[in-house]
Design brief:
- There is one protein chain.
- This protein is of the alpha+beta class.
- The chain has two domains: 164 residues, Phage minor tail protein U (Alpha-Beta Plaits, 2-Layer Sandwich); 45 residues, no CATH class.
- The protein has three helices and nine strands; from the N terminus they run αββββααβββββ.
- Strand 3 and strand 4 form a beta hairpin.
- The protein is elongated and about 100 Å long.
């Protein structure tokens, strides 16, 4: 990553992965790591986290892939109040492709694969726990808003189209929240409150005005503070 330029907004990140990668990217990789290293998919020939390359049916099946769909960021609360906040809906797709001469056996394999994946993700407390997550930078999920399991697709492959192939694709939509606060404001060092009454209602000196000064002295603020300007 290049050094910041004067045009860069001051970034107050954690110094970790989420400074340079989105939460969706972190979650997608966490799911892929968990699935690709599990017992069910240990012997799968091809495991991918990108849709950029096609699958070679002759040499790359059985196959499992973890993909990311179209992410939606919806305003969290009033648009004109407070910091900029979003509710993210992040669809993560899991595709499983297998081949078998017996369609019934193939259907059973696809069903076991999808049920295994759901249990591995939804029951993994290191992934779903909002407070004790093992994701980088303690990225936490708010919940799962939708799971869509598509109808299985079937086909034939091989030089003579003699090998039956089946695929199942299902989407798990994950919800989380983010906020984007400005970072270019100076520290709040002092608040001065002075009472004031409308003129003409009281005689001079009849009402004692009160002035209260609140000082905030974090490490970066000199103590004592300089006097208020006249």
């Amino acid at each position: 990553m290049n050094a910041p330029t004067p045009r860069d907004i001051t970034w107050t990140g954690t110094g970790g992965l989420s400074d340079t990668q989105s939460y969706a990217y972190i979650i997608q990789n966490a799911i892929f790591d968990r699935i690709s290293s599990s017992s069910f998919f240990a012997n799968f020939i091809c495991k991918r986290i990108s849709t950029a390359l096609q699958i070679e049916h002759d040499i790359q099946i059985p196959f499992v892939g973890v993909f990311r769909g179209e992410e939606n960021m919806i305003a969290d609360g009033d648009l004109n109040a407070g910091d900029i906040r979003f509710i993210h809906q992040i669809p993560i797709g899991i595709q499983v492709v297998v081949k078998n001469n017996d369609p019934a056996v193939m259907l059973g394999t696809l069903d076991r694969a999808s049920w295994f994946v759901l249990n591995q993700i939804l029951r993994d407390n290191t992934f779903t726990n909002r407070w004790l997550t093992s994701l980088p930078d303690s990225v936490s999920l708010e919940g799962f808003s939708r799971i869509n399991i598509r109808t299985d697709t079937w086909g034939l492959t091989g030089a003579r189209n003699e090998v039956p192939v089946g695929a199942r694709l299902f989407w798990i939509t994950i919800q989380l929240r983010t906020w984007f606060a400005p970072t270019d404001f100076p520290d709040l060092e002092r608040i001065t409150v002075t009472t004031a009454f409308p003129p003409g209602q009281y005689e001079p000196g009849e009402i004692h005005q009160v002035k209260i000064v609140y000082e905030f002295t974090p490490d970066s603020v000199p103590t004592p503070l300089p006097p208020d300007p006249p």
